[in-house]
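Quick note —
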Amino acid sequence: MSRSLKAILMLAMLLAVILAGILFSDLLRDRQALHDLEAQLADSRASWESIAEKKEALQDELKVAEEALKEARLTLQESVERADSLRSDIEALASEIAAFGP
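Predicted structure written out below.
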């Protein structure tokens, strides 16, 4: 083989080794980036699951609060009706007392 051919082959081998090194470096960088993205995805998934659990708990609390409010409204309505009834009874008794007056 001629000297120039050997030099070209050596240069080609050197370039191949450099290219392989660059590709390997890129591969390692890409693997690390993928690992970082997978970790971020896992964190995001955990956050969303936590948020979903909190949402369900808050919805349950809201249902309980709505039921309590509903019962309180019914109790208030019953109390108002009872107060109106008592007021009518008191007015009727006051009228009877006034009729017996001095």
